[in-house]
Amino acid sequence: MSQQSYVTNSEAETTAVARELAAQLQSGDVVLFYGSLGAGKTAFIRGVLEYFDPRVEVTSPTYTLVNVYPTKPQIFHFDLYRLRDENDLLDLGFDEYLDSGGIVLVEWAEKCGRFRPAAGYTVILEIEGETTRTITIGRVDDDSPGA
Amino acid sequence: MKILGIETSCDETAVAVVEDGKVVLADFVYSQVEHSEFGGIVPEIASRQQLRKITPVFETCKKAYDISPSSIDAIAVTRGPGLIGSLMVGLNFAKALSFGWNLPLIGVNHLEGHIFANLLADNSLKPPFITLIVSGGHTLLVRVEDWCQYTILGSTRDDAAGEAFDKVAKLLGLGYPGGYMIDQLAKVGDREFHRFPRSHFKKGEYQFSFSGLKTSVAVYLRDKSDDFRSQYLNDICASFQERVIDMLVTPSLNAALDHGIDLVAVGGGVAANSRLREAFVERAAQKGIRVLFPAFKYCTDNAAMIASAGYFRLARGEQSDHSLVAVPYLPLA
Known about the structure:
The complex is a heterodimer of chains A (147) and B (333).
Chain A lengths: L1 E7 L2 H12 L7 E5 L6 H12 L13 E4 L5 E5 L7 H6 L1 H5 L4 E5 L12 E8 L5 E8 L7
Parallel strand pairs in A: 2-5, 2-6, 4-5
Antiparallel strand pairs in A: 1-7, 3-4, 6-7
Chain B lengths: L1 E6 L4 E8 L3 E9 L14 H19 L9 E7 L3 H18 L3 E5 H12 L7 E6 L4 E8 L2 E7 L5 H11 L6 H9 L24 H12 L3 H6 L1 H26 L4 E5 L6 H13 L3 E3 L11 H12 L18
Parallel strand pairs in B: 1-4, 4-5, 6-9, 9-10
Antiparallel strand pairs in B: 1-2, 2-3, 6-7, 7-8
Helix pairs in contact in B: 1-2, 3-10, 4-5, 4-6, 4-8, 5-8, 8-9
């Protein structure tokens, strides 16, 4: 597992880091986001979308649970904030999105529980001050047998 | 003309009968939110619950009004926006009734329903007017040109206003629904206690943004002790709420003034907020603008507003066939 940390001092700096990550993403990739309310998860994802298609408007999927963006490849933006537990993921058809060939971005990934994808990127956002954030980006490769 | 309305777009299962788009003959809503026992945030993923509730809700509504092929003229149903699984339950129920009873089917946009909730409150309402739709999932400013004809003037860039209420309630350790809790506590709080920042947009832009406000509350609370939080809870709620309300009222009134329209109709769950109602009416009156709100029970999701919208769509000669599909991100215009 590789890992890299950044300290950003504005939302613009955060989205710049996001565009850098976006440049590495490919069809089938999953990015799991961790961070408290207001840490900047949606802002980061706005940066990812800026890389793929700046015309796409990214709004919070807290109530819609998943936003589907018409990018190439398609991007699925999940927000698991309202989920009660991991079993609700099955109702959402989460596993089908993972196999759909798109890029899957997941806010509140801690709610994935035992359905957490084995491989993918993790982005941890921490509030350090009014506009200062620590961003830690990690990558886990699936080295399980048969992968 | 009597329209049966069916609404299952999110956490509510609702059936209603409305005459001529204005007179509610029967109306029943089952809400998963009220039955939430989690004291927090989480209404259950709705579709399975919708499936369980749609028939009982329909039967309950039938007790108030004898719904039959001869007692109603058409069936209106929400086709989006909403959760796909939830939408499909109501849509398929409506299709089956339409097919079995040989009655016209009419698909309705959920957001449009929130506009018609105002017509249920004031039967004399007539376009043109400005509408602010403000709920957990939506914050949208619309110019209603004529019934069923809309121009979108602005929307939220990030979070919906109701979402900001719920998330800030969570930050403050309050229960669900967060908007209601904050509304109650703010009544005895000092609105000037803390000045949270507001989002700024160019003149003539009727946009909304609540993510920054939510973040500033999170940052503000970081170094505050539990004692401080509980001592000033009402004040923090009042200060936050006042800021949200200002960010809703200002663009709405600006839009009305810029468009030379003297009526603003508000809809959606946040329209039930008592301070929003008070501040909106007060500030609008200063500018010679009238503000209309639905009855409290028609602010949240309901089927009466869907039946009302369906009546006006039907009156325009519109009708859906049985290939009608649910569209989770259905735009209003």
